[in-house]
């Protein structure tokens, strides 16, 4: 899978947004209301994170791939847990990483926040910048 230059530009453009600057959201819910009903907690993201997610889908950087199977492989675990490993990531790796993180959010609230806090999202955007610079013309 190849990422188009246009999509690489969109991803690379998020490097500043994804740089560490404090929390990107906060946990909500989990408290009982007056009737004693407890709503499950969820992670509420800042608007720029919601835009990032929308842009990644629009840029076709989240694709219908077997991301769950991929995420279980040792080389995938290295990329997921060690942002420094992303410096050598391929186009395929970036697609699988983004798909794993963004689709994973549907199953586990706070997945995107965890990737941000580990520096994984920033490393992905920085790798896109490098790949963009390596592209001819």
SSE blueprint and pairings:
Layout: H1 5-12, H2 15-18, E1 25-28, E2 42-45, H3 47-58, H4 67-71, H5 74-81, H6 91-107, H7 111-118, H8 120-134
Antiparallel strand pairs: 1-2
List keywords for this structure.
two-stranded antiparallel ribbon, 137 residues, mainly alpha
Task: Provide a descriptive summary of the structure in words.
With 137 residues, this protein is mostly helical. Helices cover 56% and strands 6% of the residues. A two-stranded antiparallel ribbon has the order 1-2. Helix 1 packs across helix 8 and helix 6 runs antiparallel to helix 8. The longest helix has 17 residues, at 91-107. The two termini are 20 Å apart. The model has no long low-confidence stretch (mean pLDDT 92).
Average predicted local confidence, pLDDT: 92
Low-confidence stretches: none
| Share of helix, binned | 55-70%
Largest β sheet strand count, sense and barrel closure: 2 strands, antiparallel
Using the CA coordinates, give the radius of gyration: 16 Å
Summarize the structure.
By secondary structure, the chain is mainly alpha-helical. The protein has helices at 5-12, 15-18, 47-58, 67-71, 74-81, 91-107, 111-118, 120-134, and strands at residues 25-28, 42-45.
